[in-house]
Description:
The complex is a heterodimer of chains A (139) and B (130).
Chain A: H1 2-12, E1 16-25, H2 31-35, H3 44-51, E2 56-60, E3 64-85, E4 89-96, E5 103-109, E6 115-122, H4 123-130
Antiparallel strand pairs in A: 1-3, 2-3, 3-4, 3-5, 5-6
Chain B: H1 4-15, E1 18-26, H2 32-36, H3 45-52, E2 57-61, E3 64-81, E4 84-100, E5 106-113
Antiparallel strand pairs in B: 1-3, 2-3, 3-4, 4-5
Amino acid sequence: MRGLLLLLPLLLGSCVTFAWTRDRRHEPVPSAAIQALEPARTTLADALAALGAPLFAWEYRGSGAALAWGWTDADHKGFSVGYQFQDTGSVSMSYDDTGSKLRGVVLFFDADLVLERVREGWLRDLEREVRRRPAPVEE
Amino acid sequence: MPKLTERLLPLILALAPACFLSRTTVDEPLRKEQLARFVPGETTAKDVVEALGAPNEVVQLGTRSAYRYDFTVEKTAGFTLIIITFLNDDTRADRAWLFFDKDDVLTHAGSTLQASGTEYAMPWQTIHGR
């Protein structure tokens, strides 16, 4: 009986697994630096000096700019169960406690590159508010 | 007569250990002294491209433009014990954004140099203060 118990993990290894994964990307922007930003006063130069280089830059309202800083620390623990049916395919499902997302802050600058507003949250959601086709350039 | 545990031990030891380290880099490191040579009001987009090569991304901002340069390092450490897997990814980058006016003259520059701080770790370990 004890022998079977010892063999069980070896047999389960092909279909049941527990995985603890952690994905750390980029350095979070210090909240003090974000708090120090002042709409209508902070310039693009001030923001770059305080926060460093952003991850993304998008056109904002024609001549303005939206700059995004993002980071993640996704701690992921989960069991997964799967069965392999020879070469015909596989069936699997997993039970996880978190999803991997990039958190961040987006700064919106007007046409004079002065800070208009600050938005914090999931970068994927904030990006949707900003991204659109760039304005046409006049010859 | 050896116990069953002792008999199985070599088998367990043969199957159990599986660990790996992997390091992935994308593009070339950015150097602080190279970026310091770019002077707003003087340096042009042509100067930047001659010094750093083609940017990773060019963004149009109305009549302005911005160039992004990146160097990314990803370090992955993993360990598998039969049915248990631990995996940690740490990704950091050197990154520079250079902003140009409508005449392609540099107006603003921002840089972050963190790629050299990328570390191998396990999921429960604290790195970079978190």
